[in-house]
Amino acid sequence: MKRILVINNDPETMDLLKELLQLKGFKVSVTSEKDAVPALIKEFLPDLLLLDITQTAVIEKIQSQASPFHIPILLMTGHNRYPLAPHDSFKKYIQKPFTSDQLYQKISEVLQNA
Prior knowledge:
Elements: E1 3-7, H1 11-23, E2 27-31, H2 37-44, E3 48-52, H3 57-65, E4 73-77, E5 93-95, H4 100-113
Parallel strand pairs: 1-2, 1-3, 3-4, 4-5
């Protein structure tokens, strides 16, 4: 069973994503606490991070504490183009709003290419 860590600052979004992903057979953990992410990664051992683009400060935090960092990251964004140049190495994103089928497809693509 693949594990997905959802990092988002909206409790309703986290709950919805958790429910949708669990229905597809993923083991899911959610957090809005940026500072807790590195410890949660070590404990939960996710296969994928599903990260809201507003939470990208987490990327530097986990990269600085986990070298080399090999967990794929899928960003969720409301922008029509990936906007943050410092994070161009993370070009895997899904644009909001998205359907559950689009989310499952994108997660499958990212996990297959990891």
